[in-house]
Design brief:
Length: 114
């Protein structure tokens, strides 16, 4: 009985991996390594990997990324827009710079305490 369950489990895992690999040939991932990671993960996670791929993996395809940036006028978030507003990267950088502004560098802190 366990032998039958093992063969069925292997078959389902291979079927999930083949489904994901076939889908990735039509819609490749943004990061090339994920084109290998998703099918390999399906070999041992089986239907859980298929569920995760359908839930999160499809959002990371090049096609989905292109559609996402298409709504922003082709901007990636790192350059200024037509209205003069800064992109997401610039805002993150300026927040980080604001958070660390006025703090001494670690080397200065060590020399000041000795």
């Amino acid at each position: 009985m366990l032998k039958v369950f093992a063969w069925v489990s292997l078959g389902v895992g291979f079927a999930c991996a083949l489904f994901i690999a076939a889908d990735e040939t039509r819609r490749p991932q943004k990061m090339g390594v994920m084109n290998v990671v998703w099918p390999v993960s399906a070999l041992y996670f089986s239907v859980f990997a298929l569920w995760a791929y359908l839930r999160w993996g499809l959002k990371k395809t090049r096609e989905a990324m292109r559609e996402h940036t298409h709504g922003q006028g082709g901007r990636t978030g790192s350059e200024k827009g037509d209205d003069g507003s800064e992109g997401k990267e610039q805002l993150r950088r300026s927040r980080w710079e604001q958070a660390t502004a006025g703090r001494d560098a670690p080397s200065q802190m060590c020399s000041a305490s000795s």
